[in-house]
Amino acid sequence: MKPITTLPLVGLVRCDGSDSIAYRTDAPVPLNVVSGLTRESWCSRVAITDASADGIIPAEFRAMCVFEGQPFVLTGLIGRRSN
């Protein structure tokens, strides 16, 4: 995949390192979109970490994906639920 690409549901993602097997979202992804990743054929597993109680450490997700024949790990922050 390219260093910067667009994925369905999550939008713009950037290569997170030089190996091109890890990508990170540009902006926080709403919780309902993150939960919808499990229904996508290109995403096989999603793990979510909780935010800290004081809000200093935000919630994040990590997804195992294969898109356009390329396997990669997608990570990003979880934002508010979209309407």
Written description of the protein model:
With 83 residues, the protein is mainly β. Helix content is 7%, strand content 48%. The protein has one helix and seven strands, in the order ββββαβββ. Strands 1, 2, 3, 4, 5, 6 and 7 form a seven-stranded mixed β-sheet that branches. Strand 6 (60-67) and strand 7 form a beta hairpin. The longest helix has 6 residues, at 31-36. The radius of gyration is 12 Å and the shape is globular. It starts with a strand and ends with a strand.
Summarize the SSE layout with pairings.
Blueprint lengths: L3 E4 L3 E5 L6 E4 L3 E2 H6 L6 E7 L10 E8 L2 E10 L4
Parallel strand pairs: 3-7, 4-7
Antiparallel strand pairs: 1-2, 2-3, 5-6, 6-7
Largest sheet report: 7 strands, mixed
**Straight-line N-to-C gap:** 31 Å
Count of individual beta strands: 7
Dominant shape: globular
Q: Helix coverage percent of residues?
A: under 10%
Round the mean pLDDT to the nearest integer and report it.
Answer: 88
Oligomeric form of this entry?
A: single chain
Rg (C-alpha, Å) = 12 Å
Strand content: over 45%
What is the H/E order? EEEEHEEE
Uncertain regions spanning at least 5 consecutive residues: none
Structural class: mainly beta
Helical run tally: 1
Key features of this structure:
single chain; 83 residues; mainly beta; seven-stranded mixed beta sheet; 1 helix; 7 strands; 7% helix
The gist of it:
The chain is mainly beta.
